[in-house]
Amino acid sequence: IGCMLGAVVTKAEGLQLHLSSSNRTGYKGVTTHHTGRFHPQHQVRGRHVSLGLFDTAVAAAVAYARAVGEYRPPAPLALATEAEGLRLHLSSSSSIGYKNVQ
Asked: Is 67 buried (19+), middle (13-18) or exposed (0-12) by CB count in 10 A?
């Protein structure tokens, strides 16, 4: 996917960024503001929600990815696999690191 503003980054800060070949920033939900900064926005119940202004398209794309629920914090380095004589079920999709724990 090309971008008129430079190379497109597909991942940043642990997030999968939403790419778009149909706008010049290269990122879905990110436009260029008249100030030259980057303006991410997304829709909530049919209304546009502004996510601020950013100096780079990548920073704006990160804000967009967080806003639409892409943020997955890294799992703790060491998770217990057993406690009180029970086997614990690990999960890579849970922000806590364990299955069915929120």
From this structure: middle
CA atoms of 46 and 73, how far apart (whole Å): 28
Distance of alpha carbon 20 from alpha carbon 30, whole angstroms? 9
Question: 37-88, pLDDT tens digit by residue?
Answer: 999 999 888 888 999 999 999 999 999 999 988 655 565 556 777 788 888 8
SS3 92: coil
Provide the 3-class DSSP secondary structure of residue 66: helix
What tokens were used for 60? 């704006």
88 burial via Cβ count (<10 Å: 0-12, 13-18, 19+)? middle
Q: Which two tokens stand for residue 13?
A: 């800060």
